[in-house]
Design brief:
Length: 147
């Protein structure tokens, strides 16, 4: 069964600015894999450096059309970006993402950071809470499709 949700996206007014992710549980720590973070009403992930720019361009770019992020059991796709999921390392993260997506109400997508992770890393965050208006501006929404 497939489901789709509309998500409001936000970009920082100034490059590199973002709010903190906050207290969380780290769901995976595999080398060269997605690092999944889970907290109440939000989930986030840190990508391996070689994938970061490609996904940021697709997810947080200022495209005229609203992009659709498709998540299946074995991969994540959006535009030109394709990532094959690890059967073990990514399962808990995808489950946490599905839980946030299945709860009713508004969803917000933006970049955050956490001092615990390497300097310069950004966390792509899907949250039930709207980000700080002083840091972020609203851009066109996107859709997330679970298959």
């Amino acid at each position: 069964m497939s489901s789709q949700r509309k998500v409001q996206r936000y970009a920082a007014y100034f490059k590199g600015w973002c709010q903190t992710f906050g207290e969380h549980e780290n769901l995976s720590r595999e080398e060269n894999a997605i690092n999944w973070l889970s907290a109440e009403n939000q989930v986030g992930f840190i990508l391996p450096r070689e994938l970061t720019k490609a996904l940021y361009r697709e997810v947080l770019g200022m495209q005229r059309e609203s992009p659709t992020l498709t998540i299946s059991q074995d991969c994540v796709r959006i535009g030109e970006f394709h990532y094959t999921l690890s059967a073990t390392g990514d399962k808990q993260g995808i489950d946490a993402l599905r839980q946030v997506l299945h709860n009713p109400g508004d969803l917000h997508l933006y970049l955050t950071y956490h001092f615990f992770y390497q300097s310069g890393n950004r966390i792509i965050t899907l949250s039930r809470k709207q980000p700080l208006a002083i840091i972020y501006k609203q851009i066109s929404p996107m859709h997330i499709q679970l298959t």
